[in-house]
Design a protein that fits this description.
- The chain is an all-alpha fold.
- It folds into 2 domains: 1-97, Rna Polymerase Sigma Factor, Chain: A (Orthogonal Bundle); 99-195, Winged helix-like DNA-binding domain superfamily/Winged helix DNA-binding domain (Arc Repressor Mutant, subunit A, Orthogonal Bundle), CATH 1.10.10.
- The protein contains 10 helices and no strands.
- The protein has helices at 2-18, 22-30, 33-44, 47-64, 74-92, 115-133, 137-148, 153-160, 164-184, 188-194.
- Helix 1 runs antiparallel to helix 2 (22-30), helix 4 packs across helix 5 and helix 8 crosses helix 9.
- The longest helix is centred in the C-terminal third of the chain and has 21 residues, at 164-184.
Length: 195
Amino acid sequence: MEQDVKRRLEAELIQRTRNGDGDAYLQLISDYRIRLYRRACSLVGNPDDAEDVLQEGLITAYRALGKFRGESGIYTWLYRIVINKCRDHLRSRKSASVDSIEPIIPLISDERIGVEKNLELSDDAAYLITKINGLDKKYRRILIYRYYDDLSYQEIADLVKLNIGTVKSRLFKARELLKRAILRNGRGEEYFERG
């Protein structure tokens, strides 16, 4: 029910934007901007470049909104545009890979815990990112879409053009492969006990 209300609101905002209402477009993208920025940051590796790429993607989407057919959700459509802009940016820099969640490994910081614990958490994040990047592309992408980009099964299915059942089975397999990779390195016992 809530999803139907959201889709109707999005459809109304899309129509208002098509009719020239710029505020409607800002309202339409407001829920997605942070998630899109985070993903752009993870791909281009520089917050300023990520902001530029995101702006370029959102402007492109605004101009192309008349071509949006509604076959997927608006977030999925925006996501594709921003990812393509990131790839263009990386190609212009002659970077190699755009499918990993590198190069940014943020330093996790929480003032409530000590410096040592913050560094340990950052090391864990770097370790986990390395293991995720070691997965086969078809599993890595699904894992990243679900847990890093926080996409629904339907949004993932729309992005990778698979049915939801296949998405769920690949996600299950990706988690199993990741768990095995972590356990194989001997770090898994401590990692899973803490987690």
